[in-house]
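In response to the reviewer comment on reproducibility (Comment 2.3), we provide here a single inverse folding case reported in full, input and output, so that an independent group could reproduce the run without further information from us. The structure tokens appear first.
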């Protein structure tokens, strides 16, 4: 036997690592540190990172969690399951992440540590719940919880997108109608009216002036719009800009209710899942704050965590934020006092999920007529201006 090798019988763990002969790391063979099935990772150019890198769809992560839980429950080693998923993955980024996770498992890392190396693919709450699951031996049930949470989150996002599709379509049609009238229709009427040398009504002159301005200075308008969009995007990438936007969203009529209820539902859902998985509450609060998606709530939840570390519990600091409804704070207080915090949070999440559906429908009900009325006013004003001008011209011609 080579002095750099030794025989060992390894008890197969949940990763499914087989027994056998493994090379001992040495200075002469640095590649042995990679481990079986590893290999040197190829360096990627900046173009591959910035241009071709794609995000992993949440639906893929949901299916992965559900199927991995089924594999573990059936007694299939997790390493074998990861290799199977990597071969069948359709998303290239997800496939690369699974291959790397498999290589990390072969090197002896835990599943949560291997997943944590891919923060852009797996959210922080996902990693923390896996870490707690490994300590409690409930990996399959926690993966089921994660798949259910992701499924509910996808459903909520789908409802919001479907509710905003029709109003957005009406808005695009309104802008398109105004653009066509300004660029193609109004210049023809201007030539037609000028041939009669007639005095036009005020509304007609306003419409023609607007059309002439757009037709002449379209390039300046385009530059202004692009500059404004770029400035807004850059401002939102800064902390003050993001805070200002989040504060504005929480103060807008009707919209603020949708935003607030969506954050409350997500916060309760994530916190309930993490508490049920056995994640320590202070650690869970860090993840919940990062997952809020709103800087105002993120800062408030950070203060709640600081108060918890000082021994105040969780119910009183949450009440002081004035950002959560009274029903939520009462449920949290009951759960804290009775040791059923996860159950109370799940109940609150289910309730506010229904409330969120109602608020979305209400927002859509109010937004659709508003867009239709706006489009009708614009088109109607242009039509009245043109018709009144033509009627005035024909009357002047008849009088002559």
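Designed residues, in position order:
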């Amino acid at each position: 036997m080579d002095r750099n090798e030794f025989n060992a019988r390894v008890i197969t763990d949940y990763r499914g690592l087989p027994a056998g002969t493994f090379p001992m790391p040495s200075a002469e063979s640095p590649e042995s540190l990679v481990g079986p099935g590893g290999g040197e990772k190829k360096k990627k150019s900046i173009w591959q990172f910035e241009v071709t890198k794609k995000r992993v769809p949440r639906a893929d992560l949901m299916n992965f969690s559900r199927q991995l839980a089924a594999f573990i429950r059936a007694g299939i080693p997790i390493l074998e399951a990861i290799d199977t998923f990597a071969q069948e993955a359709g998303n290239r980024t997800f496939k690369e992440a699974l291959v790397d996770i498999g290589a990390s498992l072969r090197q002896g890392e835990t599943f949560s540590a291997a997943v944590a190396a891919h923060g852009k693919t797996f959210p922080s709450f996902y990693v923390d719940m896996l870490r707690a699951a490994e300590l409690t031996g409930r990996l399959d049930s926690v993966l089921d919880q994660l798949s259910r949470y992701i499924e509910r989150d996808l459903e909520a996002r789908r409802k919001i997108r479907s509710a905003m599709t029709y109003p957005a379509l009406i808005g695009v049609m309104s802008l398109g109608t105004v653009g066509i009238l300004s660029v193609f229709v109004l210049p023809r009427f201007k030539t037609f009216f000028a041939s009669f040398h007639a005095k036009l009504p005020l509304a007609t002159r306003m419409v023609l002036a607007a059309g002439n301005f757009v037709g002449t200075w379209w390039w300046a308008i385009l530059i202004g719009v692009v500059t404004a969009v770029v400035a807004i995007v850059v401002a939102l990438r800064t902390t003050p800009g993001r805070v200002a936007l989040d504060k504005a969203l929480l103060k807008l009529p009707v919209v603020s209710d949708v935003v607030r209820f969506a954050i409350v539902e997500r916060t309760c859902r994530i916190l309930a899942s993490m508490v049920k998985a056995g994640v320590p509450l202070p650690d869970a609060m860090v993840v919940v704050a990062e997952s809020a998606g709103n800087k105002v709530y993120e800062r408030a939840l950070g203060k709640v965590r600081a108060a918890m570390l000082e021994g105040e519990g969780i119910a009183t600091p949450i009440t002081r934020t004035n950002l959560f409804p009274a029903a939520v704070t009462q449920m949290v207080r009951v759960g804290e006092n009775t040791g059923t915090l996860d159950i109370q949070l799940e109940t609150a999440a289910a309730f506010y999920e229904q409330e969120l559906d109602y608020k979305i429908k209400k927002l859509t009900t109010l937004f659709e007529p508003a867009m239709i009325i706006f489009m009708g006013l614009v088109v109607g004003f242009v039509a009245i201006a043109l018709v009144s001008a033509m009627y005035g011209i024909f009357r002047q011609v008849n009088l002559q």
